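G., before I forget:
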Amino acid sequence: MKFIEDDIGDDEVRVIGQPKKRKKFFGKSFFVLFAAIIIIAVALFYALPKYVFSGAESAVEAVPAYYEREPEKLDNVGGTCVAMLGDSVGNNVRGFVEILDTAVNDIFLKLFIPHNSVMSLHVGAINRNDTTILFATQAADIRQDNGEILGAFVMQGKPLSFGLSKKGYCAVIDGEVTIGVAENSPLFEEATQRDGYFFRQYPLVDNGVLVESVLKGKSLRRALCERHGQVFMAMTTERESMHDFAQALVDIGVTNAVYLVGGTIYGWALDREGERHEWGTWTTHVPQNITYIVWRRNQ
Amino acid sequence: MPHFLTISTSIELVRVAAEHIVYVSPDGNYSLLRQRDGVVRQLSCNLHRVEELISEQLGEDAAHFVRLGRNHIINMNYVNYLNLPKQSLTMSDAATFSYELTASREQLVGLKKVLEQLEGSG
């Protein structure tokens, strides 16, 4: 799923607001509409009393419970766009990663929100002294049998691995990050044609709905998230189940999310002051095909 | 009463009259809106969402805006010069500002056709 489907072709030209033609008030469609209203009114006249007095379940569902209240939506959407998490940062500010601490239903999360930076992927051991890197953490998993990248993977237009192992995916094409769930995503092909990036992981949230995972037990969990267009990494500070982690992401309004390798896997982020925040355990003994999500400052 | 494009979040609000929007470009998952006064505003929506908002909020003024593939949304009132071989498009009011954009040949052919039809019908 692409968070907002953009149906325009590369070379297409589309006038956005076409003037609408005035329709005749008493046209053919008016009489069709009038007949439909009469039929619906007659049907309601006979059906409604039976429905109202039968004590239908749906009629009482909307009443709030005294003890088990439904949680309020964290995100009060009042305007035309959903409020972004974190600070609003001007283009002239040097790129950095904003780190927010939050808790939802007793799940403690750290959110890593990149500003003025662009995401890409990296294959192989990463240079932790590379000062251009604002954020790095492991992306796709590695196959236990042969050490290859698990699932389809595209590195700067070059396909390095094929196959569907996990239904979640992340694509980066022309700097735009798309997170979704699909067995066959056209974005794999597009990434190969447009020097893009693509990897697969377990899906956690699809269109605002929790996706149950096959991974059981508790661990430090990480996910690449998209919340109404804003992309960030979320990490638990305690060991959590996949279900509880995914539910917490849904509760903070995440639209789409894929899992990232968790546990003791090493990664880091540079905050506004240039201070380094690390997680996991650094080791030089990493598989040859280890892959990372990397955010670098905008040029 | 002019139509305004209004994009609001919890901490800020961008409100620009249709006639002051020159073009909008993609910026990763966000967009950059170029105003007539030269100011560039970052919007927390991608280009597709901006297109939807223009359609919803700008009434008949929305018909002045054209989406050029995945690259730009432009205000046709400020198309000043386009050159197919050079794949360049100049957005200007021929007085106070001038911005050069690049677009594919196919996009410029399509835009040229739209403008010619517009002038022909007008």
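Chain B touches chain A through 50 residues (CB under 8 Å). Chain B has one domain: 4-121.

More on Monday.
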